[in-house]
Amino acid sequence: MYRFTFGMAFAVLFPLAAHSHDLGIVGTSTLSVEETCDEEADLQRYKDDELSETRDSEVLPHSLKVTHFCADSADVDAAFDWLRRAEEQFVALFGSGIKEKDGASKTIHIVVGNGNRLCRHFGYAGCHDIGWGRAYRTCRTSEDTPTMPRKCEIGVAFMDEDPDESGWFRNIVHEHGHLLDYAYVRRDGHFYQWDASLTRWWYEGMPEYLQMSLRESMGLAHNPDRERIYRGRNLTGPAGTGSGRSLISTIVMQSGTNDYLSGRAMVRYLHTHDPAALTKAVKLMRASVWRDEGAMLRWWKLMHKIQRKHSAAYRDWNRELGVDLGEL
Question: Which value, to the nearest 10 degrees, does the dihedral of the CA atoms of residues 20, 110, 183, 133 take?
Fold first, then answer.
């Protein structure tokens, strides 16, 4: 078994979080388990643009840049292939709510290999131990610049090195989901601090469902680690399909609600039971939920409609999967 590290390089700003997810790579990776590296030399090679390759996305109008850092034997073609698969799934799931033109002249940057050193060079927080994965946003709006620059590199994500038993590399699809979110959905980066729980179910739930649904569509078994990562709790349903929280708890992200697990369950439920509501949510986020009072009111009106329409059915759906939602 080989080891491989995937990372998406988007530029910087705030870390998306150290994520614990499973990730895949088609075929076999060619990065050896113990590949020694002169980090300073590779850093200079990176600065000289010797470690990166940029290609146009085959699915959306942005460009994809893959950098192999301390990983000369990394299978860069396999990286591009997985990014294509993730983007095809993203469009299949959420394409009716996005506008492809938003990605024009934008670049998504993926770092393959030992990204910790390169991450430290960029100056991002949390680079001492990337762990499952970490994504950062670089190209963002601000109070003075409310519109995203026409041409920019969206962000960066770094992954761990360990493939699971089926050959997936953990989190490449999830982290790419975050960067696609930045480019096509939640584009108002400077409102991130205001976001709080407003769209938290989507923020982690969408990338989680993106990777899980892609895996399912390819007929791949789920990584057993998915049963152990949420504070050690045993998940029920197929690879943790359901949620231990009610719909309202997930919408408002009540204290103690796991945004990965419960967010993923809510996105899955809406995609299969009310895709029109999910599409409307994507459109509202793209237009910005945070810019003014009217936008927030439209968001909460939709959330209230979803809650009233689906609360009981969501509870039943979870119970069918063996999940007891408790009082909430």
Answer: 10
